[in-house]
Amino acid sequence: MTSAPPTLLTDRFGRTVNYVRISITDRCDFRCQYCMAEDMTFLPRAQILSLEEVQEVARAFTELGVGKIRITGGEPLVRRGALGLIEAIGRLPGLRELVLTTNGSQLAQNAAGLKAAGVRRINVSLDSLRPERFRAITRVGDLTQVLRGIEVAVATGFARIKLNAVIMKHRNDDEVVELVRFARDSGTDISFIEEMPLGFVDGRDRSEDFCSSEEIKTALDRDFTLLPSPETTGGPSRYFRLAGSDTRVGFISPHSHNFCGSCNRVRVTAEGRLLLCLGNEHSVDLKRVIRSHPGDTERLRQAIVAAMDLKPERHHFDLTAQPVIIRHMNATGG
Ligand code: SAM
Ligand code: SF4
Q: What does the alpha-carbon distance between residue 306 and residue 88 come to, in Å, rounded to a whole number?
């Protein structure tokens, strides 16, 4: 990886886009309640970008000055050939930071390979430390496997690993203190995420379960001293430092603290759709560009540059209404 040229991607509101999240699959071995319906239909193989096409898209972004790529999904590590793809992306000139979001189920066996591929930081989703509850939230997940994945990843020597926890009332809001203790004791950071209304999920009302970052922070203040920190990882988290440790505690608050003003990122779905905003449908079909003009990298770059004009100013999430965004988070790429 080398130093990147100045980014060429700027939107109508003067925001510079220097970060892309690429979903390499919509499939997943978990079925988290907030992310998916229990009975999900996944895309047919031909509809998702091939490994080569993903690489082509990643290259186009780096050529346009994007220095940071997050590999996500679905669960990125369930895609066959994921490691080879990640390695190829890690070699792209201009890329400064390659990071990954995973549910951790396959992390133990992949940590060394990911490190060798140039992945610098890893986010692992962890919503509960209680095996039965973890199984209930993920519907199928095995907590032991995920904890083992985190342990191996820490031992592998990634720059700070971050845990991501979506907190829901009556489900896991009573665990926030335990989760922070776990982060502190395992030498990781942790971010608490407010649930977003992406796609229909069965069996629950998102507005009833909503737990704001402020409520979580209040609960944590009883047990810990959280010192405001100006640190940022280029994402939407607001950070605090846990006094007496290296652990940072972040809050991703799409409802209570709108972060759109400083948005520097776009997403590419597993289908090759360039999404300009998580909370809006504005998008451009990059797969169509690639498949109708194979090898025409200039056309692909032009399509990406032109798409910047579609980036909306902000999202408007409302948990009490029917989801406006029909796509689930696994299709979007978190
Ligand atoms: N499978 C990987 C994982 O779980 O980390 C990567 C993809 S997942 C879609 C990325 C992140 O999105 C996870 O941290 C997950 O908790 C979060 N997420 C999924 N659905 C969400 C929702 N409706 N609201 C807020 N966060 C959500
Ligand atoms: Fe899978 Fe991640 Fe969605 Fe859970 S949040 S169902 S692990 S994609």
A: 26
Ligand in nearest proximity to the CA of 319: 1
Please name the fold of domain 19-332.
TIM Barrel (3.20.20)
pLDDT for res 256: 64
Please, where are the H alpha helices in 268-311? 286-292, 297-307
DSSP-H helix ranges across 35-142? 51-63, 82-90, 107-116, 131-138
Distance 292 CA to ligand 1 centre (A): 32
Domain boundaries, the chain: 19-332
* Sheet containing 248-252, strands listed edge to edge, beginning at the edge strand earlier in sequence: 226-229, 238-242, 248-252, 189-193, 162-166, 121-125, 97-102, 68-72, 19-23, 265-268, 273-275, 283-285
**Is the CB of residue 73 below 6 angstroms from any atom belonging to ligand 2?**
yes
Distance from Cα 222 to the centre of ligand 1, integer Å: 28
Q: Which of 134, 42, 88 is nearest to 330 (CA)?
A: 42
Tell me which residue of 151, 220, 153 sits closest to 191, measured CA to CA. 220
Q: pLDDT of 106-136, one tens digit each?
A: 999 999 999 999 999 999 999 999 999 999 9
Strand partners, 242: 226
Residues of the chain with pLDDT under 70: 1-7, 198-200, 202-204, 232-236, 256-259, 279-281, 315-334
Q: What is the mean pLDDT of the chain?
A: 90
Q: Cβ distance 312 to 258 under 8 Å?
A: no
Other Cβ atoms closer than 10 A to 318: 12
Model pLDDT for residues 52-110, shown as the tens digit of each residue:
999 999 999 999 999 999 999 999 999 999 999 999 999 999 999 999 999 999 999 99
Q: Which of 162, 169, 103 is nearest to 134 (CA)?
A: 103
